[in-house]
């Protein structure tokens, strides 16, 4: 897998961006373009091939496509497939490509040298990965789309926001690399299964007892294990997943706050608003007002 490294003394040049949602069985057309493209999966799976490599862009995964290399869809996606996309350009003089060993050495240099207090003067991204906290990248993506559609007085606003997004993705790539756990233990693998189950069933009023029954855990043991592994209670994590879904609904639909609350398993609209404010420091209405400008496309 290739890694892309670029200097950021100056912001990366933004070209275009949008939120793709199909609405019909969809397959990516075959093309070769002169800019980089980043795709962040939101819903279902997009099947994209670049040269001889195939990628399944699932929700929360990030794919970096290269300029002048042909890419296309190698299978049809579900009509509900949805993802953010953006194009950008970077001069050859300020970037380079690395293999995995070179990238690990680069990251290790900054991890182990305590005197590099000015931080990394570059961004470094793998061709394909799943950020551990993809919601942070999603927020920056929505801010970028809002800036573009709002026609700010200077185009550099989009350049700087794009660069901030690339920095966030680099940070999360580094976090995954520097994790002290190394390879997954059996217990950690089961926890990943629990997290995926929560993601899939987040629209329902699920609880610790529900998850315990699904995975044959004692509820008290699962509660302690979840807290130890994730640093928060399962109920708090479930709320975070629900709020992430709510933000997506607020940004892409005209559903009322009450309708969104009920779709996410909240019987009480006021309680939903309280939980949303706790996690986002703003109301659902304020969030929708802040990020209402998004370019939608289905081609």
Automatic annotation (TrEMBL):
Residues 192-290 form the HTH araC/xylS-type domain. It holds the Pfam family AraC_binding. Gene3D superfamilies: Homeodomain-like (1.10.10.60). It comes from the Bacteria. Keywords: DNA-binding, Transcription, Transcription regulation. Signal peptide: none annotated. InterPro entries: AraC-bd, Homeodomain-like_sf, HTH-like, HTH_AraC, HTH_AraC-typ_CS, Tscrpt_reg_AraC-type_HTH. PANTHER family: ARAC-FAMILY TRANSCRIPTIONAL REGULATOR (PTHR43280), HTH-TYPE TRANSCRIPTIONAL REGULATOR EXSA (PTHR43280:SF2). This is AraC family transcriptional regulator.
């Amino acid at each position: 897998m290739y890694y892309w490294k670029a200097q950021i003394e100056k912001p990366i040049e933004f070209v275009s961006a949008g939120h793709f949602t199909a609405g019909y069985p969809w397959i990516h057309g075959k093309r070769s373009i002169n800019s980089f493209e980043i795709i962040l999966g939101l819903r279902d799976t997009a099947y994209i091939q670049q040269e001889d490599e195939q990628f399944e862009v699932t929700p929360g995964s990030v794919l970096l496509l290269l300029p002048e290399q042909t890419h296309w869809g190698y299978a049809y996606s579900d009509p509900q497939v949805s993802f953010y996309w953006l194009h950008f350009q970077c001069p050859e003089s300020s970037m380079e490509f690395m293999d995995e060993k070179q990238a690990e050495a680069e990251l290790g240099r900054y991890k182990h040298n305590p005197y590099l207090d000015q931080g990394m003067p570059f961004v470094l991204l793998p061709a394909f990965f799943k950020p551990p906290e993809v919601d942070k990248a999603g927020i920056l993506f929505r801010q970028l789309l809002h800036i573009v559609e709002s026609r700010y007085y200077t185009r550099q606003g989009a350049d700087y926001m794009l660069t901030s997004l690339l920095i966030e993705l680099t940070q999360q790539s580094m976090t995954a690399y520097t994790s002290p756990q190394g390879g997954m233990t059996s217990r950690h693998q089961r926890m990943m299964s629990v997290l995926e189950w929560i993601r899939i069933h987040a629209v329902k009023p699920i609880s610790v007892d529900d998850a315990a029954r699904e995975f044959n855990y004692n509820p008290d043991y699962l509660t302690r294990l979840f807290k130890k592994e994730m640093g928060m209670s399962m109920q708090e994590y479930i709320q975070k997943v629900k709020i992430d879904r709510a933000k997506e609904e607020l940004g892409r639909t005209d559903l009322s706050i009450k309708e969104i609350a009920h779709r996410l398993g909240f019987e009480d609209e006021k309680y939903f608003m309280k939980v949303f404010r706790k996690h986002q420091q703003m109301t659902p209405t304020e969030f929708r007002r802040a990020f209402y400008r998004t370019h939608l496309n289905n081609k």
